Sequence to fold (132 residues):
Amino acid sequence: MRGGLVMAALAMLTTGPAVAAAKAAPAATASAAAAPAIIQQGKAVYGQWCAGCHAPLPGFGRFPPAGTAVLQQRYQGSVAAVLEDRKDLTPQLIRTVVRKGVAIMPALRKTEVTDAELDAVVAYLVRRPPAR
Fold:
């Protein structure tokens, strides 16, 4: 039963109206050539707020990062499950999902992650190539 709920939540995550609108919206200008200091700040904020659920899956472990495990199950390798490895994330999609939340992922308020910190996370996630 729980697996079915997780899959339903993930389907909402990847097909909901907010996500569709964010994908359709023109990408905000988050330069891939963002200043290294901004990218480092984004990595730190990501580590504090996002990595708990979206870190790479460990080789073994009882409690893998929930977001990564669900995305891995959903995409079956067709898209990277680890957000830091994704090449299809747009600045607007990241901002929308962070601010509005999706399925089981809660929305993060500006009192938790400021707009400047969110901009840094966006710069970190859309940088090329991955810096892990």
In short: The chain has one domain: 2-126. The first helix runs from residue 2 to 15. Residues 2-126 form a domain with the Cytochrome Bc1 Complex; Chain D, domain 2 fold (CATH 1.10.760.10).
